[in-house]
């Protein structure tokens, strides 16, 4: 199951709104079929792994990270395919909360005389499926707050755009995180001060950039900035105040800025940027299952205050910023009690501490 979960991560961020599921078909201790949900969400993992196994699937064990589906959706049910292939045993990590499945897949397999075990490595399985589960159960994306802080607890320097806090290895890891997430969000101040691009730029991961979202109540995103300039290649969503959006067209005013941004390929979403709960459900309706919040301080604080952060990644660099620094809303010392420390990773001189709370 651990191998199936690792395999499932291959397409994390590429299968929305479907989860990225891993499946291994094992016969006499040998893996005879392996697959992950295809890019775009279909075909599902099981049918591909069974196709690879062919006749060797007879009497084999299938390890699947999510309960095999039981519904006729875009594809026929995977449970039927497992039964038809003559699999003897199915081992599942997480049951599927999708109301079309939720236990029916397991029941179909058991009714056909297949030995079924569930809940195997469930904690790890749920972590790999966190975005899918959150969207299904709470109708919002799973939210990761990522902050890079200096040794003296600062996230940047006032009036100075981007400041290097972590080194190149940690920054490469951030690009991996971006590739895995459906969307990335920053506040309007950060978009203006830092002029970030927010894409995934590691070799081999360039086609896996997330949708970029900016909280931009007054539509003040600079037209010559990196976000707007690249909006026709990687989508940008500007979240503007709904009331202002409805206001009448004034030359040079809000409606004008909206149409200029439209022309540059930036989509404007009318939604109160201060009501983060309603914003997140709007994003979930668009199929966004995972969201990474990359700052700045005020945006991070508002997500924390609204109780909308599921996972915290605190990258810490060795240098100090000093008196002109912008204080981080979070340091190791004030992580709220509901988050548990799950791991520490080292990236060169930098450290990343991960904290999470249960779904
Ligand atoms: C599986 N194996 O690899 C995945 C599953 O729209 P459809 O027909 O593709 O169905 C989407 C649902 O299928 C999704 O909500 C979830 O319940 C399940 N995803 N199931 O057996 C897979 N990706
Ligand atoms: Zn399926």
UniProtKB/TrEMBL annotation:
Ligand binding (NADP(+)): 148, 190, 194, 296-302
Amino acids binding substrate: 178, 198, 201, 294
Ranges of residues in domain CMP/dCMP-type deaminase: 1-117
Cofactor(s) of this protein: Zn(2+)
A Pfam family recorded for this sequence: dCMP_cyt_deam_1
One GO MF term: 5-amino-6-(5-phosphoribosylamino)uracil reductase activity
Keyword NADP: yes
GO biological process: riboflavin biosynthetic process
Source superkingdom: Bacteria
Reaction(s) catalysed by this chain's protein: 5-amino-6-(5-phospho-D-ribitylamino)uracil + NADP(+) = 5-amino-6-(5-phospho-D-ribosylamino)uracil + NADPH + H(+); 2,5-diamino-6-hydroxy-4-(5-phosphoribosylamino)-pyrimidine + H2O + H(+) = 5-amino-6-(5-phospho-D-ribosylamino)uracil + NH4(+)
Keywords, alphabetical: Hydrolase, Metal-binding, Multifunctional enzyme, NADP, Oxidoreductase, Riboflavin biosynthesis, Zinc
Active-site residue list: 46
Residues binding Zn(2+): 44, 69, 78
SUPFAM superfamilies reported for this sequence: Cytidine deaminase-like (SSF53927), Dihydrofolate reductase-like (SSF53597)
EC number: 3.5.4.26, 1.1.1.193
Similarity comment: family membership: In the C-terminal section; belongs to the HTP reductase family.
Function of the molecule: Converts 2,5-diamino-6-(ribosylamino)-4(3h)-pyrimidinone 5'-phosphate into 5-amino-6-(ribosylamino)-2,4(1h,3h)-pyrimidinedione 5'-phosphate.
Name this polypeptide is given: Riboflavin biosynthesis protein RibD
Species assigned in the record: Ferirhizobium litorale
């Amino acid at each position: 199951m651990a191998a199936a979960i690792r395999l499932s991560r291959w397409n994390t961020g590429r299968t929305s709104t479907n989860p990225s599921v891993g499946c291994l078909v094992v016969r006499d201790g040998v893996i005879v079929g392996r697959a992950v949900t295809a890019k775009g969400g279909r075909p599902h993992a099981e049918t591909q792994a069974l196709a690879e196994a062919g006749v060797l699937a007879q009497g084999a064990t299938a390890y699947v990270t999510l309960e095999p589906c039981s519904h006729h959706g875009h594809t026929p049910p995977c449970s039927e395919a497992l039964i038809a292939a003559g699999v003897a045993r199915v081992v599942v990590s997480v049951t599927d909360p999708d109301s079309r499945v939720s236990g029916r897949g397991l029941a179909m397999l058991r009714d056909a005389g297949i030995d079924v075990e569930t809940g195997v490595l469930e904690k790890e399985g749920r972590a790999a499926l966190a975005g899918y589960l959150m969207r299904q159960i709470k109708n919002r994306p799973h939210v990761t707050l990522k902050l890079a802080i200096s040794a003296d607890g600062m996230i940047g320097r006032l009036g100075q755009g981007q400041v290097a806090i972590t080194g190149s290895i940690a920054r490469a890891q951030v690009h991996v995180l971006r590739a895995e997430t459906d969307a990335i969000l920053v506040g309007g101040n950060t978009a203006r001060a830092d002029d970030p691009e927010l894409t995934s730029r590691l070799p081999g991961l360039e086609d896996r950039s997330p949708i970029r979202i900016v909280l931009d109540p007054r539509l003040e995103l600079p037209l010559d900035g990196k976000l707007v300039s690249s909006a026709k290649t990687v989508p940008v969503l500007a979240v503007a105040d709904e009331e202002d959006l409805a206001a009448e067209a004034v030359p040079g005013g809000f409606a004008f800025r909206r149409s200029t941004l439209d022309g540059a390929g930036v989509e404007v979403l009318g939604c109160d940027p201060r009501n983060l709960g309603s914003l997140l459900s709007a994003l979930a309706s668009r199929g966004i299952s995972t969201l990474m919040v990359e700052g700045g301080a005020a945006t991070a604080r508002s997500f924390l205050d609204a109780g909308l952060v599921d996972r915290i990644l605190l990258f810490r660099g060795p240098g100090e910023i000093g008196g002109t620094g912008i204080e981080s809303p979070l340091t190791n010392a004030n992580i709220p009690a509901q988050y548990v420390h799950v791991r520490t990773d080292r990236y060169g001189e930098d450290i990343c501490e991960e904290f999470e709370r249960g779904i």
